[in-house]
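Quarterly update from the structural biology core.
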Amino acid sequence: MSSPVLNTKAAAAYCGLASAQSLYNLISQGNGPKYFKQGRRNAFFEADLDEWNKERLTPVNRVVAS
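Predicted structure, tokenized:
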């Protein structure tokens, strides 16, 4: 992959989460994005974060009033 590797704080910001702790919580619950370990730290690829965000989105059905 050619995208930069993000740490947890940067990955949380990239995904629009309130904090890195939110991402840690999602990961511990098994609901977080795919990640790798770099030593003791979590490492995320943007492509994996994009895929995870896409899975979490719910389409909105808009009704147009006539």
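The mean pLDDT is 91.
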